[in-house]
Fold:
Amino acid sequence: MADHSANHDAAVTDNFALPGVPDAFDRLWTPHRMAYVAKGQSQVTDEASCPFCAAPQRDDETSLIVARGTTCYVVMNLYPYNPGHMLVCPYRHLPDYPDLTIDETAEFAQLTQIGMEVLRDVSRAAGFNLGMNQGKAGGAGIAAHLHQHIVPRWGGDGNFLPIIAETKNVTATIGEMRTMIADGWATGTERFLTKQQDNTPGC
Ligand SMILES: [Zn+2]
Structure:
């Protein structure tokens, strides 16, 4: 029988502990809300039981996917730390960042960069937290399938987030955010590519 005690949940979920995180962050990153699946990663034993492998096999709206690349895709986090919280995942079921090929690494980074541009457009994000929890000991909720968090931040967001996170409409909010972000993806990509041209030496 599954162990649903608080300690168990804390052990298997993304608490996203990073060095040098300010105090307000601790209140924001509440571990018990962060299990991507109800029973934690003990449920993810292989690709067949992995939600990050399953998501791309359904339509974007059902899976809350905002963008698909060649090797990686971007999906809304079902249990967001903040509205607009996204995850960048490789299609391949692999746990470790060094496992990515050069091409996968490039697209993984590019989708993260575009995701930031889009969040600036659609939600006026003032800052971001980016990162990966590597391995169960590193706090990964689903350690078996690599995923990078993109979390938009606003000044003082630690104060109102617990209220947002407790509302019953959070699923609808995620769906609305998915639509806004998916609709804004092309514009964000254009701006990203323009910046790339401007920043390329010799152009
Ligand atoms: Zn997977």
User: Anything to note?
Assistant: Residues 47, 50, 52-53, 93, 145 surround zinc ion (CB under 6 Å).
